[in-house]
Amino acid sequence: MTAAVEITQLVKTYGRHRALDGLDLRVEEGSVHGFLGANGAGKTTALRILLGLARQTSGGVRVLGQEPGSASVSPRIGYCPDVPGFFSWMTAREVLESSARLFGLPTGTTRRRIDELLELTGLRGVDARVGGYSRGMRQRLGIAQALINSPALLVLDEPTSALDPLGRRVVLDLLAELRGRTTVLFSTHLLPDVERVCDTVAIIDHGRVLTAGSLAHVRTAFGGVQARIDVDVDDPARLRDALEGLPWIVTIDETAPGMLALTVTDLDEAQTRLPAEVAALGLRLRRVEQRDASLEDVFVGMVGVQR
Ligand SMILES: Nc1ncnc2c1ncn2[C@@H]1O[C@H](COP(=O)(O)OP(=O)(O)OP(=O)(O)O)[C@@H](O)[C@H]1O
Asked: Locate the ABC transporter domain: which residues (predicted)?
């Protein structure tokens, strides 16, 4: 497989602060990649470097096989910031026409391309001026604008964080539609969005990658978390004390009164030992529910442990 983005040991310092501290990242061509981290983890800094908008202190960056910011690579990258800005008096078509002019696209191609993009982003037939758009519509127009030149790589900084659930869904569906047509790299702190749409993910914290790879790989990466088990029991505090420190348990949280959420590395062991522990304490087990570990379980476990 060919990498659309390859970052090795990237460091960026601001004075004494290391915003990026040896970041490694690989994004395969044609994939949808989630760049996931809490606030301040270093996502925007890394994206700015790979777009050629900032320089690294040290480390290697190749984008579409080239140095970031080089004249041959920049036109092949589409970028949408978290809050895309437009002239409020323009219509969506006018915004896209002016972007097409900047890229010097021929008029015939431009018309077809704009129709396609308005269709793709659900803005076809919308005659209102951009000033009256919802945040979701602005975000979709920002994505259309970033795609005007049919880029090989689309980079989006937090494309869904300001949107309501419906707006988020529309944008995520749009990103999913791009799979295979263009490589998509988007930063986010929203785990469900990554789970919904990404092929691969990198979880970063304090300017480093904690784990990266396919969703399945990442789900099992943190101490090999296999499953999440929700236990409804009449005295959760006593059960918690009894379970704490057992080698097959990674985290125990009280998620609601009477409910414990366990993440476990060995499901067989958990299925055998849990009822036995409950019985030994003389507790009443009201309900047990089990599911695959989610990315959220992994993320909270990993980032929580680092802090
Ligand atoms: N120009 C700057 N000068 C000084 N420190 C900076 C600068 N830009 C970023 N930082 C610091 O570098 C770290 C990483 O910031 P960055 O914006 O890349 O994080 P992020 O993951 O994008 O966070 P967010 O989700 O909040 O945007 C933070 O601690 C931030 O305060």
From this structure: 5-231
* Number of the ligand 1 atom closest to the C-alpha atom of 82: 27
Q: Quick check: helix, strand or coil at residue 123?
A: coil
Whole-structure pTM value: 0.81
Say how many C-beta atoms besides its own lie within 10 A of residue 17's C-beta: 9
CA distances from 33 to 10, 59, 176, 179, 293 (A): 18, 21, 11, 10, 20
- Pocket mutation for ligand 1, best pick of 17, 18, 20, 186 (most atoms within 8 Å of C-beta): 17
**Domain identity same for 277 and 177:** no
Closest CA to 40 of 187, 142, 218: 187
Residue 307 has pLDDT above 50, yes or no: no
Which of 182, 215, 248 delimits the end of a domain?
215
Total H helices, total E strands in the chain: 10, 13
This complex has an ipTM of: 0.95
Domain interval for residue 168: 3-215
Pairing assessment for the beta strands 32-37 and 200-205 based on DSSP bridges? parallel
Whether 199 and 288 share a structural domain: no
Residues 209 and 236 in one domain: no
Helix (H, G, I), strand (E, B) or coil at 207: coil
Ligand 1 close to Cβ of residue 17 (< 6 A): yes
Count CB neighbours of 144 within 10 A.
Answer: 27
In a domain, 221, yes or no: no
Among the atoms of ligand 1, which is closest to the Cα of residue 157?
22
Q: Among the three residues 215, 247, 265, which one is the final residue of a domain in this structure?
A: 215
In 3D space, the residue among 10, 165, 154, 14 whose CA is nearest the CA of residue 81 turns out to be 154
What would the pLDDT profile of 77-87 be if each residue is shown by its tens digit? 999 998 889 99
Calpha distance 38→95 (Å, rounded): 32
CATH of the domain at 47: 3.40.50.300
